[in-house]
From TrEMBL:
Span of domain Response regulatory: 8-123
Keywords: DNA-binding, Phosphoprotein, Transcription, Transcription regulation, Two-component regulatory system
Residue numbers carrying 4-aspartylphosphate: 57
DNA-binding region: 132-230
Organism: Pollutimonas nitritireducens
Gene Ontology, cellular component aspect: cytosol; protein-DNA complex
GO biological process, one term: regulation of DNA-templated transcription
InterPro entries: CheY-like_superfamily (IPR011006), OmpR/PhoB-type_DNA-bd (IPR001867), Sig_transdc_resp-reg_C-effctor (IPR016032), Sig_transdc_resp-reg_receiver (IPR001789), WalR-like (IPR039420), WH-like_DNA-bd_sf (IPR036388)
PANTHER family, per the entry: REGULATOR OF RPOS
An annotated Gene Ontology molecular function: phosphorelay response regulator activity
Name under which the protein is recorded: Two-component system response regulator
Keyword Transcription regulation (UniProt): yes
SUPFAM superfamilies per UniProt: C-terminal effector domain of the bipartite response regulators (SSF46894), CheY-like (SSF52172)
Domain OmpR/PhoB-type: 132-230
Amino acid sequence: MSLNQAIRILIVEDHAGLATNLFEFFDERRYILDFAADGLTALHLVATNDYDVIILDVMLPGLSGFEICQRIRRDMHCSTPVIVMTSKDQLQDKEEGFSVGADDYLVKPFNLRELQLRVDALYRRKAGFSRVPHIRAPGICFDPGTFVVSTDDGERLELSGTAARIFEGLITAYPGVVSYAEIQSTVWGEREVDMNTLRTHVYSLRKLLQDSFHYPMIKTMHGRGYRLLAQNKSD
């Protein structure tokens, strides 16, 4: 994937005015946009097209944006980065969004330039991952191109973008500790993120790994950060 290619975006938004603003803002020479006003249309488009980024409203007719994101990850096994945009700004709302597989969470109203910057950042990270070789720890393998974590037992889990970046940092540092600052820098760059958001992401990732591989794969090192535990090791 070349960083000079047009970025293909699916916008899922039932508010016609906002959808129009997005279409007018994103330069057609650099971005190719598809549009869905409801969940079923969005799922059909995701199933039949390859997108670089999905911009997903939460309050939609029929299926909510959270339900759509969950189906994209769980049922369709799609790792395309998802930006959730919503007026729901409580921590529990953000936790729900990240837990169903969202990579970014943007609260309305927002500046369209900020949305563009986030789209570009997710695209760059997705493009860069495809060139990175597999990373291994005892009993565990991570493929940065597909975001798939696998074990020597043959179990597999496909992560979403933000979870994949956190996991890549952990497995790359194994058996060392990844500090809070290192996670923030790796995942969000220079964008300031509060500690609750970081912990929510790590909590969601830890639960996904626990449910899939049946052992606590991430250990909290209080006051320092986190470290990956290799398979069949708990120290």
